[in-house]
Amino acid sequence: MKEKLTQILDSALGQIESSKELEKLNEIRVSFLGKKGELTSVLKAMKEVAPEDRPKVGQMVNDARAKIESCLEEKRTAFERALREEKMRAEVIDVTLPGKKMETGHRHPNTLALEEVEKIFIGMGYEVVEGPEVEYDYYNFEALNIPANHPAKDEQDTFYINDNILLRTQTSSVQVHVMEEGKLPIRMISPGRVFRSDDVDATHSPSFHQVEGLVIDRHVTFADLKGTLEQFAKQLFGGDTKVKFRPHHFPFTEPSAEMDVSCFKCGGKGCRFCKGEGWIEILGCGMVHPHVLEMRDIDPEKYTGFAFGVGLERIALLKYEIDDMRLLYENDKRFLEQF
Ligand code: DAH
Fold it and tell me: Is the pTM of this model over 0.85?
């Protein structure tokens, strides 16, 4: 029995000594000390030992177990230390290297322009609403009084996902979503990205941004439209700004107009900025068409409203005197840093 124990002990210690990794130690522990381990089987064979020898043999087994355990522990600590040292070597940091400079970004001119527009309309009690960029034909055209085959659909050709679904060509689609909610009165603006199959040049991009506005309440008149948009222009471009409304046509408003602002560069005398005109066109607007209201179950005898749509890039270009729209999309740090 003693020989057997010595043999087990030697074998265990030898295996521990020659093991090369942490996982191996676990296997050794199981194979010697586990339920079916070699040392445990010696204990199980105790009944074959003469009763007077049992305490002695028991003591020997316990000593062997303690020895194996302490060896395992010693080896485990050594492995862990080696592993830690290896990691420290691999992750060494050269604190003498120069640091990487943290470059703080700037807000994009579009963002700055949008924040100004939002501030002005929030100040007048408007809510800011978002709508989907991928839209049903119904919201983008049909419900805005632009039925299939209407020529206005050609002007705003876009990216169709299928016959029914497209990337919206105008934020006017959000007017329909808000009316559909059925809560009146409405006083909202809705900024967002729109898409048209336009070629890229200094003033066009297939993807740009608009800010839509919609007011519906009792007794809303064209005077409210004019007063609101004049106030907007003055806050955006300065208190001396004058506005001019030119008759226009949009299918979803009647009457419709485009609004020009007096050139804030030359004060209206005519310069390179306003191409000698003295005026700069900035938005489309009009009184919500009764048919548009009816389609959304709003009684045009009781409620009236006005709507407007502004090109956000146009405002950013004007306000920050940028002469090419493409600069807004290039993400060139040297350009963006200037704002
Ligand atoms: N959706 C029009 C466009 O993209 C702009 C517009 C004009 C919006 C008149 C309006 C409006 O709400 O009343 O050309």
Answer: no
pLDDT at 47 over 90: no
| Residue whose CA is at the smallest distance from ligand 1 atom 12 | 308
Closest CA to 210 of 187, 191, 189: 191
The angle formed by the CA atoms of residues 215, 221 and 224, to the nearest 5 degrees, is 65
Question: What is the CA angle 207-252-214, rounded to 5?
Answer: 75
For the stretch 279-315, pLDDT in tens is: 999 999 999 999 999 999 999 999 999 999 999 999 9
Which atom of ligand 1 approaches the CA of 252 most closely? 13
User: For 152-173, what is the mean pLDDT?
Assistant: 90
Question: Which helix H or strand E contains 217, and what residues bound it?
Answer: strand 207-217
Q: What is the pLDDT of residue 307?
A: 98
Ligand 1 mutation target, pool 154, 169, 171, 172, most atoms within 8 A of CB: 172
Tally of CB atoms within 10 A around 283: 22
- Does residue 239 carry a pLDDT above 80? yes
Q: Which of 331, 314, 332 is nearest to 323 (CA)?
A: 314
Q: Is the CB of 250 under 6 A from ligand 1?
A: yes
For residue 285, report the distance from its CA to the centre of ligand 1, in Å.
6
Distance CA 241, CA 39 (A): 97
